[in-house]
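Q: Here's a chain of 146 amino acids. Please give me its 3D structure as tokens.
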Amino acid sequence: MKIKKFLLTVSVVVYLISLSQKTFCTPNGCGYFAGILNLISGWIGVFMGNFPAFPWLANPLLFLSWYLFKKQKTNWSFLLSVISFILMLSFLLVDEIIHKGGSIVSRVLSYQIGYWLWVLSSLIMLTANLMVYKTSIKLNKLVARY
């Protein structure tokens, strides 16, 4: 159980660190795309129906996964961590991003450390869920034998 708590903590810490880092670069530069700005403003694009914004939905799903994991509702936590991870990776499919209040469209040139830490936080949570799932399967098989 200590490893479970450790992985949850590491996932949260890595996520928080990602918020302070640059996430991607466009021809206009990399400086103003810190993770915290993406977190704060990304939801707007979701309601505008822009695909590049849909990976933002990984944030609330990851938050909910953390909460459910802590509450030991690991089946739901596992499912949400899988969806969160896939949504985060889907940002790699984004060619262009809309920013500055929807007035500028720029090509995504590269992904920076903030993006990769963001993905890593979800991967750590997914790993924690897989460990719990694997342990529960072993316990269920052991109990079924007797």
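Q: Can you summarize the key feature?
A: The chain is about 65% helix and 10% strand.
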